Amino acid sequence: MVTKKLFGVAKDGLEVYAYTIANGRGIAVTVLDYGATLQSVVLPHKGERVDVVLGYDTIEAYEQNDGYLGASVGRFAGRIPDSILRIGDQAFSVTPNEGKNQLHGGIAGFDKRVWHAEAGGDSVTFSLFSPDGEEGYPGNLRCAASYTLNDDALTLVYRGESDRTTAWNPTNHAYWNLNGHDAGDARKHLLEIPADRYVPVGPDMIASEGEADVAGTRFDFRTLREIGDAYDNSFVLSGSPVRLRGNGGVGMEIETDCKAVQFYSTKFLGKRNGKDGAQYGPFGAICLETEGRQIQRNASVCEESILYANEPKTHTTRIRFLFE
User: Fold this and answer.
1) For 145-185, what is each residue's pLDDT tens digit?
2) Which residue in the list 45, 104, 173, 189 is annotated as catalytic?
3) Run of H or E residues at 124
């Protein structure tokens, strides 16, 4: 069942609505048409209800704060080195918004747009049109993001179609704390990433070389272990689920058809006020962004992040919630 209510009015005068998908198992997921944003995930556990996603109570907070909390980011998740987008033998200048690089789609990426919403049954689908040249990207792009809640799983599907070959690498940027969105430091969460390789980065967070072997390094999460450290790296997935477990018995498994997951331990999340008066800050959550592999400097985007003209493409990620 989906219910809809007014969340607020954006600074451009557009009304923003919250859509809550609830099921008979006591799970409730709230998504906003602003940024096609995952605003909350409330889970039943040991007789209580715990919200495990960081977010805000007002549209003003989403407009004013950085960090992409829960947002659908695009056209391109991650950093484009020197803001030069290379697709095969073509190069395009895109808008820088993190020093000389572009991050998560530019100054006015998909996270800062009000999407069109359609709700029905157990799902909400958001759609958006991005014109040719927006933030420097080629092609008129039509994209959609759908959230579906079934039993113990939330499924997110991104769909894109363009009239010109372009780069398309969307993701959801949820900040997870399985102890509760207001529980603070999440570094004692247990994480398993089925990846033999990861992408090293330099001081500017740009991919500095080819993929590296995780064996014998702190990047080896092939078995479930405590996070404990700072990370902001792309891991090349083997096809098995990514697993995250909190310290109170709530866990989740992430299955995806994406090539990689960006694991960010939120070291750079500045202190801010969140939902229900919560205080958020560094290491207060875990981001697991399913997407394509990151771009190396002077290199073309990876094949999985190319959207060819008039050839629609989808990316699917399924998050199953676990309870002890």
Assistant:
1) 999 999 999 999 999 999 999 999 999 999 999 999 999 99
2) 173
3) strand 123-130
Structure token digits, residue 302: 């990876």
As a whole number, the mean pLDDT across the chain is 96
Query: From the CB of residue 255, how many other CB atoms can be counted at a distance below 10 Å?
Result: 17
| Distance between CA atoms of residues 224 and 240, nearest Å | 13
Beta bridge partners of 40: 30
Longest CA–CA span in the chain (Å) reads: 58
Tell me whether strands 272-273 and 190-192 are parallel, antiparallel or unpaired: unpaired
Q: Which helix (H) or strand (E) holds 22?
A: strand 15-22
pLDDT classification of 224: cutoffs 50, 70, 90: very high
We report the CATH number of the domain holding residue 279 as: 2.70.98.10
**Cα–Cα distance, 180 to 93 (Å, whole number):** 41
pTM for the full predicted model: 0.97
Sign of CA dihedral 65, 111, 200, 53: positive
Output the pLDDT for position 102. Answer: 97
Query: Which is catalytic among the residues 134, 161, 289, 291?
Result: 289
Q: Which domain holds residue 161?
A: 2-323
CB neighbour burial string for 178-201, b if at least 16 within 10 angstroms, e if fewer: bbbbbbeebbebbbbbbbebbbeb
Active site (annotated) includes residue 211 = no
DSSP tag of 188: T
Specify the number of domains making up the chain: 1
Question: What is the Cβ-side half-sphere exposure of residue 157, based on CA atoms within 13 angstroms?
Answer: 10
Active site residue 253: no
